[in-house]
Write a structure and sequence with these properties.
Blueprint lengths: L2 H21 L7 H9 L20 E4 L2 E3 L2 H10 L7 E5 L5 H7 L4 E6 L2 H13 L5 E5 L12 E6 L8 H5 L1 E12 L4 E9 L2 E10 L13
Parallel strand pairs: 3-4, 3-6, 4-5, 6-7
Antiparallel strand pairs: 1-2, 7-8, 8-9
Helix pairs in contact: 1-2, 1-3
Bound molecules: S-adenosyl-L-homocysteine.
Amino acid sequence: MDLYKEQEDVFKEKREEMVRRQIKSRGVKDPMVLDAMKIVPRHFFVPDQLLERAYDDTPLPIGEGQTISQPYIVSWMTELLKIKKDDAVLEIGTGSGYQAAVLCHIAKFVYSVECIPTLAAEAGERLAALGISNFQIVVGDGSKGYPEHAPYKAIIVTAGSPDIPPLLVQQLADGGRMVVPVGTSHIQELVLVERKKNEVRTRELGSCVFVPLVGEYGWKP
Ligand code: SAH
């Protein structure tokens, strides 16, 4: 049998186990999210030397001092956004492109902003190689959002911010939802921001650990 196919089968099994043991067991239920987590080949998004650990219950380094988030956190944040199939989503912090790939399986279109050009380029190549085309990766300071296509029904920030970035709240649509880790540069609280007309509600949902959001409304380098 073709060695490549055999390897893909092993990874598929590992993904199913990941969804069962790390994600469903912690309470994530949305079938669209569970499907996306079963489909997206996480091993494609980690450095070669970490291939064996791609489906572990942990974040992993991806170079440039950055990380690919823990699978459970990716699924939890995605579920919180309650994305509908016609929604456009804004992600801040493309990193490896893994979270963006998961979002692309659920949303109509994903705009993802990354401030490190090499990471942005590599992520774009990975998504294209997987045949994903409903995305645009933008190099820039995502702490200011991406006004070009605002407002967005869903915004996900995958880096830890000192405060809720004000321009991101402005770019949230009526009825839109944003998840953003807010806290120190070492530990944050995951905050859900819901906008209804001009009323903005925030809720703290639990602690998490992300690399720092840098830039104008993030941490100063
Ligand atoms: N979502 C990623 C993980 C993100 S790690 C994944 O699935 O792999 C956080 C990323 O945010 C890093 O790549 C970092 O470079 C990026 N980042 C930090 N501050 C940023 C900013 N102001 N604008 C855009 N990207 C930023």
